[in-house]
């Protein structure tokens, strides 16, 4: 499989990704992208790498690459 790690933080900006920052952050949290959650990159689309498939907390989710860029991930488990 692909890259694996743990979510360190969400870093959402405003406007450049299509949704206002607070709305994107709320949606990501609702999908399970919370600090300390384990994530794994499963698949990248053929054209431009979009969409990507990510497994977070036993669930597979498709995200646009620009949305996924708001998720800060570390390779090491949180302390």
Describe the structure.
There is one protein chain. This protein has 79 residues and is of the alpha+beta class. The longest helix has 10 residues, at 21-30. The protein has helices at 21-30, 65-68, and strands at 4-10, 38-44, 52-56, 59-63, 71-74. The chain has one domain (4-74): SH3 type barrels (Roll), CATH 2.30.30.90. The model has no long low-confidence stretch (mean pLDDT 87). Strand 3 and strand 4 form a beta hairpin. Strands 4-3-2-1-5 form a 5-stranded antiparallel beta sheet. It is globular. The protein is built from 2 helices and 5 strands.
Give the overall shape, derived from the CA principal axes: globular
| Topology as a string of helices (H) and strands (E) | EHEEEHE
Q: Overall pLDDT, averaged?
A: 87
> Strand-residue fraction?
35-45%
Describe the largest sheet. Answer: 5 strands, antiparallel
- Which superfamily, in CATH terms, is the homologous superfamily? Ferrous iron transport protein A (FeoA)
Rounded to the nearest angstrom, the radius of gyration is: 12 Å
Helix percent band: 10-25%
**Side-by-side strand order of the widest sheet:** 4-3-2-1-5
Q: Please tally the β strands and state the result.
A: 5
Question: Briefly, what CATH class?
Answer: Mainly Beta
The CATH architecture category equals Roll
